[in-house]
Amino acid sequence: MATQFLIRTSYKAVRLAAANHRSRTAVRAMCTAKGIPTNEEQATGLELRALLAQKKGKDPYSIFRPKEYAGTSEDPHLVPSIGDKRLVGCLCEEDNTAIVWFWLHEGNPERCPSCGSHYKLIHQELPH
């Protein structure tokens, strides 16, 4: 009698495990029917805003590498600012350890007092 009980319960357990395995396989197959979601499909918040802005060619959060300028009066380094002045630091030489700090005001390009590179302040709105 105990043997029959063990056989019946083990048979039911095997059938239940097989049924669970089939249902898990079906659920897993349904989830991947569409494929792996793209970044745009699963991004939210600021990440989604940044991705949409990148598609439009804008850089609201300064994610892209800045464009290099010659630093001359015709092609000055552009410095974005939300105000009418900003403190700018210039590394006059590539291996220089001292930074030359100066105030940059909105209007005409201004020169670095040490190396003579030109900088121009441009007004930029906040992205949010």
Structure at a glance:
The protein is an alpha+beta fold. The chain has three helices and five strands, in the order H-H-H-E-E-E-E-E.
Task: Outline the structure in words.
35% of the residues lie in helices and 20% in strands. By secondary structure, the protein is of the alpha+beta class. It folds into two domains: 2-53; 67-123, Sandwich (Cytochrome C Oxidase, Chain F). A three-stranded mixed β-sheet has the order 1-5-4, with no helix packed on it. It is rod-shaped and about 100 Å long. The model has no long low-confidence stretch (mean pLDDT 79).
Number of H- or I-type helical stretches: 3
Biggest sheet: strands, sense, closure?
A: 3 strands, mixed
Whole-number radius of gyration?
Answer: 32 Å
Q: Can you tell me the residue ranges where pLDDT is under 50 for at least 5 consecutive residues?
A: none
Helices and strands in order, then pairings?
Layout: H1 2-31, H2 39-42, H3 45-55, E1 77-81, E2 85-90, E3 100-105, E4 110-111, E5 118-123
Parallel strand pairs: 1-5
Antiparallel strand pairs: 2-3, 4-5
Protein name: Cytochrome c oxidase subunit 5B, mitochondrial
GO molecular function, one term: metal ion binding
InterPro entries: Cyt_c_oxidase_su5b, Cyt_c_oxidase_su5b_sf
Descriptors:
128 residues; alpha+beta; Cytochrome C Oxidase, Chain F; 2 domains; 3-stranded mixed sheet; two-stranded antiparallel sheet; 3 helices; 35% helix; mitochondrion inner membrane; metal ion binding; transit peptide; Cyt_c_oxidase_su5b_sf
